[in-house]
């Protein structure tokens, strides 16, 4: 055989019609197991690869989904993008990746479907869009929201249980005997921040007082912010510094560790530190960083599967009920908290 194998070549090798080969490739259920096996064997023998453009056209698909995140240079989002690429490839989708920089206008453009190409679905990790705005959305492109915000049923939402995850981190610190546990990454008055909610619940469950002066916000999730806020905490509480710190991201936690060590505090002997996200840098830091590790693979798979289900529902003219889907997480104890 010369040239690229064709659908007709597969049909001839398997002794079936081209329509039957197409049905097998598109995983139609009414093909018998014996016929399916013969067609698959023929595909493998001659090295046939489906024309995805033609296949997508036949299925009414663009063959493209979009992943829109705040910052691609943040390790968490870079790792998540890799998992989304893998999950999408299993469904023959190519992924368009876009960075918003936390710009609300860019997020709104994505929600409105303003992309250079038609897409079959959108996965968005937003820093600004809320449930009220999502309810006003007119674009019908399948949508999955990521992140720790509460969208109150306005869109399909995939995340870990951020309240439980934060509580697990703080409970770990309390069980080590730490009593003045600070939190860096939220304003004390932000009652909707799920990781702050988890912090407060764990402190209460451990019978520890909650001192709002030990809760510091960050403008963005950078190590420099963590270092700055930890430096401020040490200055403000020179006589009675915290003996543990829970940070909303690993990036922030690495800055916290730097602030502590440059000012003569030992980690974890004097101050234990736990981060969030399990980024690769935390595993190579000195000390290695205790953290909450979200199942990014599951987050990506659930998001892509939901896009597929929404796409199929729209094609069939049936309703898709949006809701919350949670992926697993685990506490990883390393050197920064005595592991």
Automatic annotation (TrEMBL):
Residues annotated as domain HTH lacI-type: 5-59
Keywords: DNA-binding, Transcription, Transcription regulation
Name assigned to this protein: DNA-binding LacI/PurR family transcriptional regulator
GO molecular function: DNA-binding transcription factor activity; transcription cis-regulatory region binding
UniProt-listed Gene3D superfamilies: 3.40.50.2300, lambda repressor-like DNA-binding domains
Domain of life, per lineage: Bacteria
Claim: Chloroplast is one of the keywords in the record: no
């Amino acid at each position: 055989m010369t040239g690229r194998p064709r659908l007709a070549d597969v049909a001839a090798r398997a002794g079936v019609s081209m329509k039957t080969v197409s049905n097998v490739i598109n995983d139609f259920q009414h093909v018998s197991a014996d016929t399916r096996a013969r067609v698959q064997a023929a595909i493998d023998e001659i090295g046939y690869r489906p024309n995805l453009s033609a296949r997508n056209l036949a299925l009414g698909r663009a063959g493209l989904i979009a992943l829109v995140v705040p910052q691609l240079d943040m390790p968490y989002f870079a790792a998540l993008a890799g998992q989304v690429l893998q999950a999408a490839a299993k469904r023959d989708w190519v992924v368009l990746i876009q960075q918003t920089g936390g710009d609300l206008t860019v997020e709104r453009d994505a929600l409105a479907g303003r992309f250079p190409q038609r897409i079959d679905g959108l996965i968005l990790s937003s820093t600004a869009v809320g449930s009220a705005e999502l309810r006003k959305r007119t674009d019908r492109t399948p949508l999955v929201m990521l992140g720790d915000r509460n969208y109150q049923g306005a869109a399909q939402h995939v995340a870990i249980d951020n309240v439980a995850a934060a509580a697990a981190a703080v409970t770990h610190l309390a069980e080590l005997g730490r009593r003045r546990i600070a939190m860096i990454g939220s304003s004390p008055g932000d009652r909707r921040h799920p990781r702050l909610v988890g912090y407060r619940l764990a402190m209460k469950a451990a019978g520890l007082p909650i001192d709002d002066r030990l809760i510091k916000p960050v403008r963005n999730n950078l190590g420099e912010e963590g270092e700055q806020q930890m430096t401020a905490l040490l200055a403000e509480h020179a006589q009675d510094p915290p003996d543990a710190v829970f940070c909303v991201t690993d990036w922030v936690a690495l800055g916290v560790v730097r602030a502590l060590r440059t000012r003569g505090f030992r980690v974890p002997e004097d101050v234990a530190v736990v981060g969030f996200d399990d980024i690769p840098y935390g595993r190579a830091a000195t000390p290695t960083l205790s953290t909450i590790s979200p199942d990014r693979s599951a987050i990506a798979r659930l998001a892509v599967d939901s896009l597929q289900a929404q796409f199929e529902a729209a094609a069939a003219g049936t309703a898709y009920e949006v809701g919350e889907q949670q992926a697993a997480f685990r506490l990883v104890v390393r050197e920064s908290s005595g592991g």
